[in-house]
Amino acid sequence: MNEMAKTDKVLHRKEAGVGYVVFNNPARHNAMSLDMWAEMGRIMEDFAKDDSLRCVVLSGAGEKAFVSGADISRFGAERSTEEAVAHYNKTTENASNALAAYPKPTIAMIRGYCIGGGLGIATCCDLRIASDNSTFAVPAAKLGLGYNYPGLKRLVDIVGPSFAKEIFYTARQFTAEEARTMGLINRVLPGAELEDYVKKYAETIARNAPLTIRAVKKVVSEVLKDESQRDMKGADEAVKTCFRSKDYIEGRDAFMEKRKPVFTGT
Fold this sequence. Notes:
Layout: E1 10-15, E2 18-23, H1 34-48, E3 55-60, E4 65-67, H2 75-78, H3 82-100, E5 106-110, E6 113-115, H4 117-123, E7 127-131, E8 135-137, H5 140-143, H6 149-159, H7 161-170, E9 174-175, H8 176-182, E10 187-189, H9 191-207, H10 210-223, H11 232-243, H12 246-256
Parallel strand pairs: 2-3, 3-5, 4-6, 5-7, 6-8, 7-10
Antiparallel strand pairs: 1-2, 8-9
């Protein structure tokens, strides 16, 4: 994945403790090519090494799409042989895992189309906040595609088995309100308010105690695993780290002194 040439179709920046990833292919409704998948994985790996970041927001460029799926125009070059398909699948799997395993909070800011692989990216995030004109679908059953276990499990963990089946069986587009009802998205906002709302949400998270948040993400990730696979020792240690931290003292002092705490993650 990391050997591929970089692309300007996935942009990133860091502001106020928040990392931003922007899928920048608006001419194709931010459809994902192989190099875009590789670049997303690279960015998330870089973000994971930056202790100053406390939250990451992913979004699509323009007004029409978060990510509309795979860039079909690139299939001839990228998925024409068995070896090429295997490389494509490995690249997308690595990128998705880098996002899903990122140890800090992630938010998908969704405007417009969130289709196929775009919904897959969104389900790798912790939170999904969408504009009221967003639409969601997985058209695999219209294309004869199979969907692998990790991607389906992420969707089932969020919406449950019945809604996951409905999304796949019908292959239709669901409205933002239908998605909210399923639990697929956390919030629905008017389009004009979405960016400001998500920015404030991310910065709110960034100001909270990072060790507490990291522990919650760790414990929840273990809850979603089969019981035999759970790292209970790691989850317990993450909680204990909170109580041993300077931030725990800062949180108590700030509460008693009626001021806002300043957390350092130590």
